[in-house]
Amino acid sequence: MILNEQSIAEIREKMVKYPRRKSAILPALTVAYRQIGHLNEDLYGEISKIIEIPVVEIAEAASFYTMFPKHPVGKYLIQVCHNISCALLGADGLVRYLEKKLEIRKGETTPDNLFTLITVECLGSCSTAPMMQINDRYYENLTREKVDTILDELRKQA
Amino acid sequence: MEKRVLFKHIDDPEQVTVKGYVSNGGYRAWEKALKSMKPADVIDEVKRSGLRGRGGAGFPAGLKWSFVPKGSPRPSYLICNADESEPGTCKDRELMECDPHGVIEGIAIAAYAIGSHISFIYIRGEFGGPIRAMERAIEEAYAKGYLGRNIFGSGYDLELIAHTGGGAYICGEETALLNSLEGERGMSRIRPPFPAVEGLYACPTVVNNVETLSTVPHIINNGAAWYTSMGTEKSPGTKIFSLSGHVNKPANYELELGTPLSYLINDLGGGISGGHRLKAIIPGGSSTPFLLPGQIETPLDYESLTEAGSMLGSGGVIVVHDKTCIVWVIERLIHFYRHESCGKCTPCREGTGWLEQLISRIERGEGTPGDLEKIDSICDNIMGRTICPLGDAAVMPIQSTLRLFRDEWQYHIDHKSCLVKSEFEFA
Amino acid sequence: MSSKNGDKVTLTIDGREVTVPKGITVLEAARSIGIDIPTFCWHPKLKSVGACRICYVEIAKMPKLAVSCATEVMPGMVVHTESEKVRQGRRAVLEFILLNHPLDCPTCDKGGECDLQDHTFAHGIDDSRFDFAKYRFIRDKKSTFDDFRLGPEIIRNQNRCILCYKCVRANKEVFGEYDIGAFQRGNSTEIDAAPGQEIDSIYSGNLVEICPVGALTNTDWRYKIRVWKTQTANSVCQFCADGCNLMLWKDRDRIYRATSRCNDGIDEGWICDRGRYGYQVTDAGGRLTTPLIKRGERQEPATWDEAVALIARRFKEIKDKKGGVCIGGLVYPGLDSASLYAFSKLFRTVLSSNNVDFRTDYKMLPEKKDDLYTLMTLQKFSIADIEKADLVLVIGSDLINEHPITNLRVRKAVTRNGAKLYTLNPFATKSGDISVDEMIHEVGTIEALINGICISIIEQKLAPSGPDTSRFTAMIEPNRLEDASRLSGIEDKRIISLAKALGAANNISLITGELLTTAIARENIAAAILNLAILAGIPGQGQIGFLSKYANSKGAERLGVMPHLDSRKISRLKDLWGEYPEHEGMGADRLILSAKKEEIDSILVIGCDPLSCYPDGQFVREGIEKLDFLVVADLFETRTTQAADVVLPLSSVAESAGSFVNLEGKVQQFDRAIKPIGQTLPGYEICNLIASELKGPLYDSMKALQEETVKLLEAGDTPELDPVFHEVKLAVEKPDGDYNVPLYVVDQLHHFGHLTEKSQSLSAFCNEARLEISPSLAERLHATNGTLIRIESEVGKVILPVFISENVDNEVALVYRNFSATPVNVLQMRKRRVDYVKLTRVEEK
Ligand SMILES: Cc1cc2nc3c(=O)[nH]c(=O)nc-3n(C[C@H](O)[C@H](O)[C@H](O)COP(=O)(O)O)c2cc1C
Ligand code: SF4
Ligand code: FES
């Protein structure tokens, strides 16, 4: 098993809340993603066993939702919103700035496996653009200076 | 002037706690509804308030609730749509993060009105902060007996389940949301049957936006007449507008409906940023047709915006200054809609892909004569021909710019470059 | 203009007023008056999803085009199906679909029968405004044409897929299978097998058949022939008793594929892979093509004249010397009715012998006619009526294995119409996934369990008012709920709740199958089932379905191809023939026993292989070896043909016209698709040749034979079920020491009987006998898939590789009987109700 006991317990707990078991697919994927940082077929198999839903249904659903990476990513997944409100305030420049600072290109992971940089669609942070999400935290009204500090801090924490 | 109803206590850091919320007058409406009103009375009051859905379509909330069949042997469900993903819109996030109990109270009253004992809030999966805030608030509400069994000793039971999404704009569309909540892929469903008759698990279901539901407690507390005293006759009350893009003070502002757009952009928003001039406004989230500077006095209400050729939508006002290439803007948008199309119906799935290819080649300076006509006709073949309105949402802004900024499009094709070089850097 | 009378709706379509049932779609209404609207994603047996948008129509007062497949008819609607707006809308949809669709029709197997090709043609689209390179999905770089294998028979070409989702929908909605799915989203959506799985369900071929384009094809048909070069022949499936209707696609004398020929009463347009790929048996290599006569140790080719003369001479000798009672006949119940009838007539009128039987792979049969069993099997039953049930009770059947298409009707009753399903079996089956309660009882205790249910129906006061229940419990054993519960291993509260459900149900379909009816004690079991049926109030509100096993078991029964017939049937035959042998006939089991005792001299076998299939292989061998003269007709060499003095080449079903009687008793005709291969002959001709040589022809003309056969078949009785109860005796056997794992000899999911192993496609799913066991038993044996296990019973042993099944979940051993390399009948004991075996791992050296 890849899922740890806590995750399994959490999935079980969610499963019983819903009028139908199948509704627990997305919550279960979320739990698995939180533990592992990405999703894969082994996890679908494990979830399938726990919630007793055919594995194809888990995999079909998982592949539909783009929030969950399907391959391993760095410790910090940097997701820059490149949709219109952010783009109007320089999101493309922000991506270039991050590419330069991290010495990777969009879609890549730093060699130390610390950062993965991707762009995503509108994150509902339009009035505080430009912004990025790192794991499940939002960083808004970004400037070069702020980005520097954020990255430094994350490096320190790691 | 800002008119703060939903945002009345938005700056109070204690509002997120049940204690703070109650001391600011929270949960009184819930108690009032349960203790002194029948479900039909609640529906009636909301009907009379004229409250219209804030999720985009503007459908009268009370009317929607009244469609739930009475005395059906099947359970009914109330779902709060908190999947907010429309580019330009960020109001529900703020409501959930800063006033989660307001959302819960609204859900509870609506659930009671339609006789639902299990309700859901479908929160966008990326919304870490709001998810935490809502989950904490739900826990508190259970602990205080505002949710759970025998609420206020009335004998009424209500469960509220927070369900989080997985990154799919389409799951904000109500039928896709239902599929997603059922554990299916988040693909839209044909209507009829409408959710009010056959929704979640094929049972009667009402889906309402966060802001819509957050308004309900205020209507119950203060009465329909109070609500209709604000706004316009057909668009009563207040609405939160998310102001973003090229303005000096982007933020969420709550205004009476009918307030002129200029007041939002200039008086509250501090005018166009960087000393530039206004070029275009997308008034209702990225799915709505563009407005021109000359339309800046348009009142922000459902009817006036429709008359002006656009829509109020979700209230995401995106401001674009004159150093912005419109083709570039549209490329961003079509990329989004192509990426978010669920892939169920042909016109949306294939059409958005084709449009993205055409538009990005024009943006790259590789457009060919006839491309604009082609784009227009592809849009015609999508508009009104898809299962859910995502197709319409994708093409409305495109077609409006083909009309309003034709020269800029044409220039792109003729000169293989922008008429207006976009000027904005990351500072 | 509009009128609405009751449940009818009147509307106008293309200027024609039409009145149709309420609730149907505009599409169905249009089709009902011959107006064809194109569709891709719509399927008559699936829920509408309105995805492809090709079925647009214009409806007056509606601003937008409407999808007719998902728009319900309304009174007074005015519909246009061919207006300019409609045609423009459809052209737009086709343009969208064709954007990335390869125009590889010349090499696409769907060419000529492709909905996309047809609709594009009909809408005159000859050019595209799309000037980008088409997107190409390539998964497996090694393959050509972007083909990708999804299972033994399924090839996917994602480029051609138009995302109608019919494959995925049918698989889940109708088949209850979960081996295919749609992945990713938007225009990246892809159809693929479930992670780590292959598409190998018994229904997989249907996915290919309903794919509107060439996205899913099967290896069976691909690149062999263009469809427009073929002709079709109507056929009926021979690989179980459901009687699905098939279409055989042939050119000259070769068959290229089988597809469904939709019969809503039976198959609703679905067929299982056995039926789809089983036709390959006909032109599989190795068919017997000439008669063979044993000379010394060798069987040598001979002419029909020689062979028939020899047979006639030997039969005559035996008959003259000892009487026709010393000759017996065993015949395969998958032969056409005329052949079965001719077989019986040959024995009874020419050889004067009643020793005929079609039940060649059943456990020891009673040596008299079985009344209650027959009463049960003759009950009126319809597959389509299962849909009307609000409760379906399956007793003793692994439905999906034994009757894949009846299984679908049960699924439909449950998943679509909300019927409750209860299953009573000695091991878990696939039906468990939709059962309210899957009762897995101790092996060989089914009567006890049924008695328990009967007792609780009475105790709960749920019995119907008519029958007198006061003496009921005195007639049955066990007669206390607690004993029934203890013996069967099913807790009493489950039994009570089933009794309650039966009491509350208004329409019950009680279905019993092979696991009971081919077993010893079947009279006793039938008695218990009939008692239950009466107590559950089935007469009048429901039906009892006995699911006979072979394609023509029902026909064989009706035609009397058994030693013991009831007096009505005997007098009918006497009337027809003017004679009927007087002596008591022998059934299959006694025939072989008598052969062993040298009381029988000769046996004629047509179409079956007792040496490999009949329970207790050693016993059969000893019997057969003692025979003076053995004649065997079959399609292929078998153990039994090898032992024969004369071997006759038999035609396959596709090679001669005929009829089968399905499990409902429906007589269904099928056409001859191709002319017989080599010198093969159908069964009735073989019988006729022998008869002619001995006495005179059995029939004057084919027509006369058909008429006689049909007359007998149509005289099928469906007796009423009287409200009387029957005695049930207890006959529970206990396992013996070391031999303690119950054994079931079953068909592998993709096989049926001894012929299907010759089908290449079916062999691609499974080509060897295996030991199918539960994961827990496998664990106990330290076995994984493929581990060799020695299976020993008191009378024989075989070594088989393990197949771990997620379905089976208790300690039973299932072994496949379909493979000639491993005759598993050696494990069976003819006098034991349950065969118990010992399993041990074969240690690798
Ligand atoms: C593509 C698409 C996305 C949508 N996203 C949202 C959303 O994120 N939040 C929302 O409340 N409504 C969204 N809607 C509207 C919903 O379908 C639905 O109309 C709304 O939730 C009803 O609530 P209301 O009546 O309170 O507005 C979306 C609609 C479409 C077509
Ligand atoms: S593979 Fe065929 S049946 Fe399946 S979705 Fe694609 S086109 Fe439809
Ligand atoms: S057939 Fe009607 S939408 Fe596909």
Question: Quick summary of this structure?
Answer:
Helices cover 42% and strands 13% of the residues of chain B. Chain B has 427 residues and is of the alpha/beta class. Chain B has 3 domains: 13-228, Rossmann fold; 238-321, Ubiquitin-like (UB roll) (Roll), CATH 3.10.20.600; 326-415, Up-down Bundle (de novo design (two linked rop proteins)).
Polypeptide structure, described:
The complex is a heterotrimer of chains A (158), B (427) and C (845). Chain A is of the alpha+beta class. Chain A is built from 7 helices and 4 strands; from the N terminus they run ααααβααβββα. In chain A, α1 runs antiparallel to α2 (25-36) and α3 (41-51) crosses α4. The model of chain A has no long low-confidence stretch (mean pLDDT 97). The longest helix of chain B is centred in the last third of the chain and has 18 residues, at 346-363. In chain B, the strands form 2 sheets. Chain B has a 5-stranded mixed β-sheet. In chain B, strands 7-6-9-8 form a 4-stranded mixed β-sheet, covered by helices on one side. Chain B has helices spanning 18-23, 28-36, 39-49, 61-66, 91-98, 100-114, 128-143, 174-181, 210-222, 224-228, 261-268, 302-307, 326-340, 346-363, 371-382, 390-404, 406-415, and strands at residues 77-82, 118-123, 148-151, 156-164, 205-209, 238-245, 251-256, 278-282, 316-321. Chain C is an alpha/beta fold. Helix content of chain C is 29%, strand content 18%. The longest helix of chain C is centred in the middle third of the chain and has 19 residues, at 304-322. Chains in contact: A-B, A-C, B-C. The B-C interface holds B 168, 185, 189-190, 192, 338-347, 349-354, 357, 368, 374, 381, 384-387 and C 48-54, 56, 63-65, 67, 70, 72, 89, 92-93, 95-97, 99-100, 129-132, 162-163, 165, 182, 184-189. The structure holds flavin mononucleotide, iron/sulfur cluster (SF4) and FE2/S2 (inorganic) cluster. Flavin mononucleotide (FMN) binds next to β5 and α16 of chain B.
